[in-house]
Hints:
The protein has 20 helices and 2 strands. The protein is an all-alpha fold. The model has no long low-confidence stretch (mean pLDDT about 90). One of its GO terms (biological process) is dGTP catabolic process.
Amino acid sequence: MEEVHARxxxxxxxxxxxxxxxxxxxxxxxxxxxxxxxxxxxxxxxxTQVVSPSGSGLLLHNRLTHSLKVAQVARAIxxxxxxxxxxxxxxxxxxxxxxDVVEAAGLGxxxxxxxFGHLGESVLDRLARERFALPDGFEGxxxxxxxxxxxxxxxxxxxGLDLTAAVRAALLKYPWTRQSPVPGQAAExxxxxxxxxxxxxxxxxxxxxxxxxLDDLLDARIPFEKAVPEWQQTVEASxxxxxxxxxxxxxxxxxxxxxxxxxxxxxxxxxxxxxGHSVEFAAEEHVAAGDSRPGASLELLRRxxxxxxxxxxxxxxxxxxxxxxxxxxxxxLLEVPFDRSQQAEQAVARFSGDWTxxxxxxxxxxxxxxxxxxxxALAPAQWHEVQVLKFVHRHFVLxxxxxxxHQRGQDRLISxxxxxxxxxxxxxxxxxxxxxxxxxxxxxxxFDELPRDVLPADADLTTLARGxxxxxxxxxxxxxxxxxxxxxxxxxxxxxxxxxxVL
Length: 503
């Protein structure tokens, strides 16, 4: 009972403050409601999944519809696991699993996602570190945790959503900070904890909390300290993470089939050529990253799996996955162009439903796991299938020159917006947007309270606070709000009032 109570504890429980009333009796259901009622959740409808929703019409997912699907899949996984008494007992031993917790985590996992998708994330990280010398930079998962613990307004004194420990822990895909990747130093680094290949010395590539939220991360993990290693996800976080992988692998392929970008000929040719020449490819000592031969990119994926995930890599499972994707994606779905007919819609629904069911049925629970996996994860066959599905999306969508052109413009937009807002804070703080001033005051207070050894020796706290405030402000905008705000700040519009953003 004590562990159950600890999972449901909120930080406000220790302060004596009365909270605004929740409609749900269950504290975890109340958390789910707090997230879905948040303005940060509503804004996800205007935030890029892969292509900006403002320019893609109704055919493509945005971050809101993606989050809804992740929550749906996460709850389905949890329901299936809890229905089996043996598996349910394992989950209890590993810290517990609640349906409302996994659904809340699915809904909330992208609250910190900035405008323009992962491109926006990388630009804000670069500017945070280079312009403002913020050692934590920017990371979407860490920004999500900052939203729910600091900068949303449901909680005590207007700070955060005051969520239960279990839901906060379930949002921690990577339960460490950038500068201290793995507390206790696991023998092998977990997924995301190593440094980015192109940025040595910058800390972990992925992390779920900034230094300013480290105390909150540690607090959320207290109920699980005897159940899972401190570097390992809770089982509810693992379910959310796996559901995110499943949703991403399937619905982005649906999207780009609908708009005609995924073409049968190119996808089928790549998969078939690797299948026809896999033995020859495997015999080659080196396959260069820029090798344009059909099948070469897929061979590079196979080798990367062996290099990074030897614990699960299996050539037979990989070959079977390629065959399955060739048949069910390329031949059964892509061979007939999408024309919005009833037959075409049924084909998409069938593909999505069959794959989601298969992947959900491939979930397993292990007490002892490898560092690069979670206690709740896909079985080897389904794991390899997800890698191949992601490859198709990455190779035939994300690496397109026209998307790269679009992203270069978005990079410039965000960079100019950071510069303009920073100059505004320097020039005239008193008439800067109210929200931006609030974020500056919050950040200044946080940096004042941090131990000095966490910050660079020559750190200027005002510059750090200004940088974190500007980054927080931009990360809370939609794609359209970011573009409209820069238009106004650049003098390219004479319109005084704009309903796209409110200052």
